[in-house]
Amino acid sequence: MYKEDEFLQLSALQHFVFCKRQCALIHIEQCWIENVFTAEGRIMHENVHKERVKNLKDVRIELGMPLHSFDLGLSGKADVVEFHKSEDGKKWMLFPVEYKRGKPKLDNSDKVQLCAQAICLEEMMNIKIPCGALFYGKTRRRFNVVFDDVLRKETIETANQLHSFIEAENTPAPIHTAKCESCSFINECLPKTVERKFPVKEYLLKEISKE
Known about the structure:
This protein is α/β, with parallel strands linked by helices. The chain is built from eight helices and seven strands, in the order E-H-H-H-E-E-E-E-H-E-E-H-H-H-H.
């Protein structure tokens, strides 16, 4: 159980799973670099949040809904939370939807972020949420995500690891992978340049010994 002043941003979960160095640059070193990809993502989220509430026949849609969880120690906003009427019309079933600019990722970073939103809603409203969806701008499609025991366990463990990671305040060394090419930090992170066959500390000691 975390205190309110220990809350971290929900989005940090996605950054942490996607790339721990990126997470450190944003959430430890407080850096933010925008490129065409982050700009497109920001505009998409701004458009989603323009209207607070939409009411349809059997669905109520709330946009930019504030979220928090004392169990996870996280807070943030949900892009979309759909309230669907149950078959008997006596209660609402919640369905969170997260909007992403690109396409589905090979890792679970987006799923973990969405699952964390569901856990926040469950804690806030004392309900159970079985599933949600990720909407990707490139495919223009929703991908349903089931919040099963495996994903829930991964999300809880990731949240705890994130807290330890942020508290340690250590920015990892870069490791160049294919996903670096779309990262807005590539010119600051310099994964190809900094990644060497030997540690930087060893390199500096070697240079000092020459003097």
